[in-house]
Amino acid sequence: MEDGVKKFLYVNRKAPYGTIYALEALEVVLIGAAFDQDVSLAFLDDGVFQLTKAQDTKEIGVKNFSPTFRALGDYEVTKLYVEKESLDERGLTADDLQEITYEDEDDDWAEKPSIIIVSRSEMADVMAGQDVILSF
Amino acid sequence: MKFGVVVSEGPYTHQASDTAYHFVTAALAAGHEVPRVFFYHDGVNVGTRLSIPPQDERNIQEQWSALAKEHGTDLVICIAAAQRRGLLDKNEADRQGKDADNIAEGFRISGLGQLIEMGIDADRLMTFGD
Fold it and tell me: Which CATH superfamily is domain B2-128 in?
């Protein structure tokens, strides 16, 4: 930890709909962004479904909040770690996920991908390097 | 050590709020600090003063209220999660035009910023959930 900045990791393990955990996790991320901490998100298990493209919730009568993930870059939330094994186990690939990008202020505002696909063991390293982990 | 504690499941259905309570009492007894407990998701339901569990069962809300009274622990209920689930303090009931409020003694309603602040301030953040 340096200069009072902590590394926060929000771990998303559950499907976007069916329970409220994913939506209320995102609400924490958006509020937390105002605190100028070093923020990362992790998606594993059914949590990887949160990032899939072309979500349509009309028939279940709940709000489709997936577009909000594309706005995270504006909140300086730019590291979304997605576990490859969780994708594989569900028949998903990186192509099934939304394109989520941010503008890198240290690189002339170049547009860069926020999603980082990592292996299960790399995910363990990501978690080990955090100060605060909030699991949803 | 200074602990921050999150309770993210509701009382009675899940053991999370009981386990959190046991953790906090044990931590305090061992000389640690637990300045704040944050209630999120269905965990906000711990803070209603209107629950009436059978007399031969523990009363989870009363346990927490007594703990807050004895140790000054700040019991914070997330306002966004609380409003969805019908948890209101007097101010919020008046503001929203509702005819009742139900927050128990020792609990207060506030924003998610209190959760982040607790994460920054604490040496360890513990989540009690499913």
Answer: DsrEFH-like (3.40.1260.10)
A contact residues 15-74, partner B, Cβ 8 Å cutoff: 20-21, 24, 27-28, 31-32, 34-35, 37
Provide the domain limits for residue A52: 7-135
CB-CB under 8 Å, B6 with A27? no
Amino acid at B84: R
d(CA A120, CA A111): 27
Q: What is the pLDDT of residues A60-72, one digit of tens each?
A: 999 999 999 999 9
Helix and strand numbers (H, E) in chain A are 4, 7
Q: Using an 8 Å Cβ cutoff, are A22 and A47 in contact?
A: yes
Residue of B nearest to A13 (CA): B130
pLDDT value, residue A43: 98
Domain layout of chain B by residue ranges: 2-128
Closest Cβ opposite residue B127 in set A20, A34, A135: A135
* pLDDT above 90: residue B53: yes
ipTM: 0.92
